[in-house]
Design goal:
1 helix, flat, mainly beta, four-stranded antiparallel beta sheet
Length: 97
């Protein structure tokens, strides 16, 4: 079960749906959130995909290598586009299983 919340950058308006802890588990598996410094997005990569990549992950959006990926969570993380502060829209939640 996962509870996704909407996070929006106060500076540039970049928005992402994410779990506050930076990872989530669904029936399809466990997923981890990363900030890609190449395409400047927040991306999710499954534990299975990480294992298949031999823990040398690539961005699923732009295919940049691990040197561009950093773990991310909205509590500590900043906007991947401008490094601004991300604000949670606590009134909007998506529940997933």
């Amino acid at each position: 079960m996962a509870s996704f919340k909407s996070y929006k950058c106060k500076e540039c308006g970049y928005e992402v749906w994410a779990e506050p802890q930076g990872f989530h588990a669904l029936m399809t598996g466990q997923y981890y959130q990363f900030r890609c410094n190449a395409c400047k997005r927040i991306v999710s990569i499954s534990a299975q995909d990480l294992a298949e990549m031999q823990y040398d992950p690539r961005c699923p959006e732009c295919h940049a290598g691990h040197e561009h990926l950093f773990t991310w969570n909205p509590i500590e993380g900043h906007c991947p586009k401008c490094n601004g502060e991300m604000e949670c829209d606590s009134g909007v939640v998506i529940m997933a299983d």
